[in-house]
# Entry
Amino acid sequence: MTGSEVLMNVRKFDGRPHKKQSLVRLGEDEHGVWLGAPAGTACGVGGVEAVYTTEEARVMLLPRDAWWTALFLAAPARLEFYCDVTTPSEWPSPAEVTMVDLDLDVCRLRGTGAVFIDDEDEFAAHQVRYGYPPEVVARAAGAAEWLAGALREGAEPFGSRFLTWLELVGQRG
# Structure
């Protein structure tokens, strides 16, 4: 399955399409499944096929049974890491992965290493609007806090492990 295409379909809690992207399966390790996309990959947002094209190579980590995904971006991206708080990834088939975006994003800036949690206002509004169950709220908030600490500390997979996978994408691009 390494080298095969994987369609990533992300929905919002109400079922609306949120993001759609084709990535290449790079492999798996103790952290989860790694997918990659070379610079120039088309990305769709809100159900639209191609909204923008990436300027940098990227790898995505889909950890097993975790409430988050992590995107590792090569330069020149302003962000080094962009983590989405989501429901655990589901694999309807080896060629498709799905999850529900739960609004919160945890990011680390390239250069300064500053870490921040984004879209907390959206998360609060959607708890009311879509009726997030208390367990979903607790899991999402806990995942965001854990990610912020891991990004600040440079704990793996946010230390150097991702570089091996990012190098593979550069070789494929």
Summary: The longest strand covers residues 96-109. The chain has a mean pLDDT of 91. The two ends are 18 Å apart (CA to CA). Residues 134-153 form the longest helix (20 residues).
